[in-house]
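Example record

One chain of 370 residues, shown exactly as stored in the release files.
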Amino acid sequence: MDVGVTMAFQSAFNDLTDQQVYQNELEVALMAEPMGFDSVWTTEHHFTDYEMIPSPTQFLSFMAGATKRLKLGSMVIVVPWHDPYRVAAEITLLENLSGGRMILGLGRGLARAEFTRFRIPVEESRGRFNEHVTAVLDSLETGTFELDGTYVKQPASPLRPRPIRSFAGRTFFAGNSPETMPLAAKLGAGMLLIPATGWDEMIKNVRAYEEFWEIDRPGQPRPRPLAVAFTYVDKDAGRAEELARKHISNYWRSVVEHYEFAAPQRFDNVKGYEHYKSVAAAAADDTDKFVNEFVDQMIWGTPEQVIERTADLRTKIDLGHLICHFTYSSLPHEDAKASMKLFADEVLPVLHTWPVEPVVSTEELASARS
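Predicted structure tokens for this chain:
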């Protein structure tokens, strides 16, 4: 099974300059390839210190130049915030710079503050995502972007540089909302699971997605889900639990604040986000419980416990690729590096023995480079 690392570039809990945050995160990101990890990922967020990563493709282009074999994942490009032609063009540029190493993650966004500052009504997110993502994926197969939509009208325009090869089998949608499942199946995308609602809810989404897939694509191989997990490893079980509970909970409280989960009225009458009203209601009703339940589901402990937790998750959702958060919130930089090294030394070799077809194979990379 492939295992990756993802970078958050979060500054909310540290007395560090933005540049120092970037230096620390880049140090960890550049450790991934020599330690034997298979991929590196990042998110997209703007305007605040919650996560300071406004361009996933730009960071991944840097990583493409600094590495030789790491797969490069977007987690996710938030499609409604951008001109869709530029989204497609930036993807093909990264593809060409990296020799075909990209794993494409796409999403529609959630934070009201980000939509507001981009001057885009949050109520339009679903419509924009559905319209734009269809055109983006079509263009990555044909090399020509064309869209006569409600929000954007773009005459047929070539993508240059051209796509190297198909993105089929390596395109994933953020799978937090049940409404995403039918479109993902229809377009052949897999599920990228970021457990804002807990693994039990994610499992329901995966099962619904599987049903839609069988309706739209009977008999076709289905991409295995990718899952993101906050990770901490220590040889001392007590210390592992202490640091995981402290720092992962701090991160999740920043999520509650950023997405206004403690104010369920924020989702009243917001078209396209009906699902999140129940999430926010749970957070508002008992924030401590909401946070602790999230921490309980993450992957932390001794190396043996981490392997066991990962195996359990793999069984529940037919996991195809694990993406680990080693740096987050207030976790000290040296502790994050030590945790990642211990994972690489004692957990990663075991996970690499689990038989799962990689999202991007060595043969596909060789073909893309020839």
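Notes: The two ends are 26 Å apart (CA to CA).
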